[in-house]
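Minutes, methods subgroup
Present: GH (chair), OT, SY

1. OT presented the first of two proteins processed in the latest run. Sequence and structure tokens recorded below as shown on screen.
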Amino acid sequence: MKVKEVADLVGISVRTLHHYDEIGLLVPAETTESGYRLYSEDNLAMLQQILFFRELGFPLKQIKDMIESPSFDREEALALHRKMLLAKREQLDRMIETIDKTMRHAKGEIEMTNKEKFAGFDFSHNPFEQEARERWGNRAVDEANAKVGRMSKEEQHALGDRMNAIYRNLASLRHLPPDSVEAQAGIQAWYEFLQTMGHYTLEAFKGLGQMYVDDERFTRNIDKFGEGLAAFMRDAMAIYADRGKSQ
């Protein structure tokens, strides 16, 4: 099949297929002398696999690494896709039920407990985890996840309270120069907190601060503690890391 035929069949753009070819993710079985890309049945099977991974939120780089691994098994991957999609469907069903109940509650037809209002929400999977893995490697993320996984619910809540306290303290300092004694003491508390969760090098710590500004999702969440906090933390973290590397 030609690239346009594949694009129409699957419902993606020709540009997307060209990009997959350029990065070596899905290379057509053949390219004619006139430059037409021709896709085989094996190509289509691999494209299906890629799109399953994409649907589940995996970045292209990680998909490429996985499918090129000597240990990659397509049947195992499909079984994993099915398991993840069933879990996703179950969560969506719970959220739809919560919406229906909330609409009835708003009309005065039923009463809802506070717990029922949040049924179906699941934040146990960090939406930024894959990006963190891609940028900084698996070690820090795996160590952090393992430590949190071994904690009781009470310990996890205490950890969250500690993290929020650090953010609130930094927010109170954000109008000071980022190289001030107070700001650097606050950032050191953040660095030490992260070190209790996993191993972060000073370079990774500095890069993490830059991500707070580059990624609007981080900026939006951090700035909930105080407008401009993300940019302040970026600057303070860079100063802390550079000073640490020079010692």
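2. SY then presented the second protein from the same run.
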Amino acid sequence: MARPLGAVRLRKANSVTLTVGVALVLFILFFLMSSSTPDFSPARKAAAALHPLSPPTSPFRKSAAGTKLKPPPVTRYNLNNVTTTSRPLENRENILILTPMARFNQAYWDNLLRLSYPHELITLGFILPRTKEGNLATRELQTRIAKTQTQSPERDRFKSIIILREDLDPSLYPLATQDEHERHKLANQKARRSAMAKARNSLLFSTLGPSTSWVLWLDADVVETPPTLIQDLAQHDKPIITPNCFQRYYNSKTKTMDERPYDFNNWIDSDTARELASKMGPEEVLFEGYAEMATLRTLMAYLAKEDGEEGRDLHEEVPLDGVGGAALMVKADVHRDGAMFPAFPFYHLIETEGFARMAKRLGWEAVGLPNYKVYHYNE
């Protein structure tokens, strides 16, 4: 019998083909769902905060859509149980890395990802200005964060990440540009360092949680550190400790890559500096590294020994009276005790140098490691 015109004869599907097809559909659905939802281990899920008002350094898991949010829990914290030791890795101590950021540098982020300390114990905190450069940096930072926290293996994802924006009228920002030449003009230092101090304090007070053991201040332009930076600094068990910040550059005289000191805010005080300060008015600030203010302080930047030099020890310590913020490791208890970054002249010092003086007044000492180097981006 003839078939009607246009009729299609269906062939019975093979069972193997159906099985493969179903498996493929299930795989695609699993991939789409898992790519948008971080797959954390049970240990991480158990430690996640149950409410958005929980401490900011605890990762937060969103409730399912349509679920009624429970009231915030009443939680008691015994800070005596928070350890800050020379063996943070063995004791599973939580690290808070804080970075004021005006511009995004990919090398900074890449270096951050290379840190060997377990990322599940690291919380990142950033504060960025509401400027054109700050808006661009925020977008770039958010892009890298989204990729790391959703697409990277779990071991590379950080415990939690917090981004703050400065609540300041853009017209009040002390500098129109973040170019290195403008940033380091002496005439710009008081306004610039005061704004930096306010940003640091806002970031610190908004992110320091009850389980934080150490706070690592890391400059947004620090692009190279040893992967073991956290463990190396913590092993000294000092309240405040800082490495030496250098800068790699091309030496046109030797036609080779070379390095030079960068951070001159790590210093040992001098009689000359104290005498200069004694003659200053109450609102004047003494800045380091300027010919107009020859302090004759001992700068840690110039205490570094060359590679191979006799007696060179990476972990040699020197006491400091002033510190910089390029890479600064602080026991959380120092900040909890009230040591912050003065945005005003504090004994004629301001920001990180003022922080060192304030911490010392509270009984906390600072040390530096002249031969242990981190590297700042060379503009």
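Chair's summary of item 2: The longest helix spans residues 15-36.
Next meeting: continue with the remaining queue.
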